Amino acid sequence: MVVKSSKKQKKIWFNIIAPKEFGNQTIGETTAFGPQQLIGRNIRVSLMNLLRDPKKQNMQLTFKIKEVRDKNAITELIKYELVSGFIKRLARKGRNKIGDSFVAETKDKIKVKIKPIMITRSKTQKSKLTMLKKTAKEFIIERVKTQNLTELTNDIISTKTQREIKGKLKKIHPLTVCEFKAIIKMR
C-alpha cells in the first residue's frame, strides 16, 4: 500500500512592531504562512503595556499591520479608546454624562472620528449640557485642524488636550471627567 505524502507548509513567526511614536518596540508575535496573510490584521494593546505606566491601564490602542519587512510586521495606529468598564465606573448617580460623536480633519488631511465624553460633578440643566457639548465640539475641531495625526494622538495620550478642554469648560459648569471615549482614523 502506497502512503501519500502531504505537503504541509509550516507557519512562520513574525514580530509585531509598534509605530515610531511608540519607539518601534515589539508589541507581540504572531504566526502566518506568509507575509501577505498578516497585512490588514488588527492588534489591540493596552497603553499601560506600551508605556509601562499603570495609570494608563484604561486606555487601549488598536494597530493595523500595513507592511512586513523580513520577519517584522510594521503597524500603524488606527484607534484609541477607553475601556467601557472605566466609563461605567465614572458615571454615578447625581451626575450628568455628556457624549458626542463627530468627524474632524487633521492638518495632514486625515479624517478622524472623535467621541468625547464629559461627566459633570452634579446634575445640571439641559441648556448648560448643550452649551458644554457645543463648546467642546468647537474647541476640539479647531484644535484638530492645527495638528497632524501624530501630534494629536501624542497630546491625547499625555492628556494635554483633555486638560485644556476641561479648563475651558469649567467656566460653564464644573466637570469631574473630560476624556475621549474613542478616536478612530477613518479609511
Describe the structure.
With 187 residues, this protein is α+β, with helices and mostly antiparallel strands. It has two domains: 12-82, no CATH class; 84-185, Band 7 domain (Tetrahydropterin Synthase, Chain A, 2-Layer Sandwich). Helix content is 27%, strand content 36%. The protein is built from five helices and nine strands, in the order E-E-E-H-E-E-H-E-E-E-H-H-H-E. Strands 1, 2, 3, 4, 5, 6, 7, 8 and 9 form a nine-stranded mixed beta sheet that branches. Strand 4 and strand 5 (72-82) form a beta hairpin. The longest helix has 20 residues, at 126-145.
List keywords for this structure.
alpha+beta, 9-stranded mixed beta sheet, 2 domains, Tetrahydropterin Synthase, Chain A, 187 residues, single chain
Shape: elongated
CATH class category of the largest domain: Alpha Beta
Number of strands: 9
The biggest sheet amounts to: 9 strands, mixed
CATH homologous superfamily descriptor of the largest domain: Band 7 domain
Q: In what range is the share of β-strand residues?
A: 35-45%
Alpha-beta classification: alpha+beta
The CATH topology of the largest domain is given as Tetrahydropterin Synthase, Chain A
Number of domains: 2
If classified by CATH, what would the architecture of the largest domain be? 2-Layer Sandwich
Instruction: Give the proportion of residues in helices.
Output: 25-40%
Order of helices and strands: EEEHEEHEEEHHHE
Low-confidence stretches are none
Continuous helix count:
5
Concise account of the structure shown:
By secondary structure, the chain is an alpha+beta fold.
